[in-house]
Design a protein that fits this description.
The protein is α/β, with parallel strands linked by helices. The chain has one domain: Spore Coat Polysaccharide Biosynthesis Protein SpsA, Chain A (Alpha-Beta Complex), CATH 3.90.550.10. A 7-stranded mixed sheet has the order 3-2-1-4-6-5-7, sandwiched between helices. Strand 5 and strand 6 form a beta hairpin. Helix 2 packs parallel to helix 3. The protein is globular and about 45 Å long.
Amino acid sequence: MRTEGEIVTNTDPAGPWSLVVPLKPLALAKSRLARAVGGDLRPRLALAFAQDTVSAALSCRAVRDVVVVTDDPVAGAALAALGAHTVADTPAAGLDAALEHGARWVRARRGGAAVAALNADLPALRSGELARVLEFAAAFPRAFVSDAQGIGTTFLSAAPGVELRPAFGGASRARHLASGAVEVALPGLDSVRRDVDTGDDLEAALALGAGRFTAGLAAPVLPAGDR
């Protein structure tokens, strides 16, 4: 695992964006998914989702680095092995506090960073779709992508010098709109919008084409009709 003072960067020096990815301890993550996949597989899938999300993000040419905020040592080691930096969730005060902590950590080391929060449960994420989101977001102080249901949020960006001001959880799309963030309404962003909380969500992600970590675990075992 990398040291606290080191940011891992994309090999493309032009990538301006730092992405902050929050991840709960695996023992607590994705509790709603247990009904579809069982309690033993659930934490393994939560890690696989994060691995596929981080892998796709790091392969996006617009991304300079990915910072994962987590207190889970297993997840931290696995994601650091992919090239992400891991930062302890020292606020330990929920999702928004973790995201603000990650954004502050990035800007303490690179003051002019454009920062974006990205959900850790986007196993079908495609780097090309993420690149389109980041290109759009670069034109606005803050921008966001709603989830597939149009209720929550999977991505929130802040331009250099602009506070992230995350308001994730529940009906976060409405809160981000009310805060002045611009919604990224581009077509063809299915992989950026498809977060996974339930068996139905997982089935949809697999249909889109989940990454290798998720597909290797979920495809053989997801029980038909119990999603």
